[in-house]
Amino acid sequence: MKKNSIGKIISVSDLNIKVLLNSNEVEIKDILYYEDEEKNTHRFEIVEMDASIALAIPFESVHGVKKGIDLYLAERRITNRIFQ
């Protein structure tokens, strides 16, 4: 079953990415991710939102991350896993 994209990367810097969201299902602290050709998973935490644009910080290096990549919403936020 193919998941639906939650948005696309529109900007990449060393410290963060900007995402054009196509859904209102996301909140601050949600985790977005994508899997590259080598099956490596890249994760980002949403830290700021404004209308349909989210600012997210990477868990690791943004090396190889490009504009136009589809992102998907992880099942649960980090804080939910810690406190539940």
CATH-defined architecture? Beta Barrel
Proportion of β residues?
35-45%
Number of structural units classed as domains: 1
Amino-to-carboxy terminus distance:
28 Å
Helix content range: under 10%
From the structure provided, what is the oligomeric state, counting identical versus distinct chains? Answer: single chain
Strand neighbour order, sheet with most strands: 1-2-5-4-3-6
Poorly predicted tracts of residues: none
* CATH first level: Mainly Beta
Q: What's the number of extended β-strand segments?
A: 6
Instruction: Spell the H/E element sequence.
Output: EEEEEEH
Q: Taking Cα atoms only, what radius of gyration do you get, to the nearest Å?
A: 12 Å
Summarize model confidence as the mean pLDDT: 88
Secondary structure class reads mainly beta
The CATH topology assignment is Elongation Factor Tu (Ef-tu), domain 3
Principal-axes shape call: globular
Largest β-sheet summary: 6 strands, antiparallel, barrel
Description:
The structure is a single chain. This protein is mainly beta and 84 residues long. The chain has one helix and six strands; from the N terminus they run ββββββα. It has one helix at 78-83; strands at 7-12, 17-21, 31-35, 41-50, 53-58, 70-73. Strands 1-2-5-4-3-6 form a six-stranded antiparallel β-barrel. The mean pLDDT is 88.
What descriptive keywords fit this protein?
mainly beta; Elongation Factor Tu (Ef-tu), domain 3; 6-stranded antiparallel barrel; 1 helix; 6 strands; 43% strand; globular
